[in-house]
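Workshop exercise sheet. Pairs work together: one partner reads the sequence aloud, the other fills in the structure field after running the prediction. Swap roles for the next sheet.
Pair: D.N. / O.F.
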Amino acid sequence: MSDDSYAIVETGGKQYRAQKGGTLLVDRLPDDEGAKVTLRPVMFRAPKEVVLEPSELEKVKVEAKVAEHLRGEKLRVVKYKPKKGYRRHAGHRSELTRLEVTEVKLLTRKPAGAAKKDEQADEKPAAEKKPAPKKPAAEKKPAPKKKPAAKKKPAAAKKED
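Structure field:
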């Protein structure tokens, strides 16, 4: 495969184009600087091949190294309502992580970690199928009878002058 291959990856609910040797600026990741991160591919594109199917995407490997943690540019937020004397000012800086993409390639078979995840996923439904032991239903007690509400007396007739 040549350098023309790239992958669309998802992290933090957003999608990015990852190409070998490129950098990505994503929402803050919990990993330390220098750590290797595996990104989840959504699409893979090679010069003569496009991979979109989830079963085939498990063969795509996208790795990146955490280059640094930084804060984004400050955004100013102003709220204003005319003729009311209402003005509010606030600021916001996003916590970001810069990733250096080290590897984007299509493997011939699933990586070992993905195979283990599939086996664990297959085992979980089998455990869920076992019926839970039935607990005896608690006996219901009849609700206590309430006294009938006292009848209201009609309001006294108004005296006419």
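Discussion prompt: The helical segments are 54-57, 112-129. What would you look at next?
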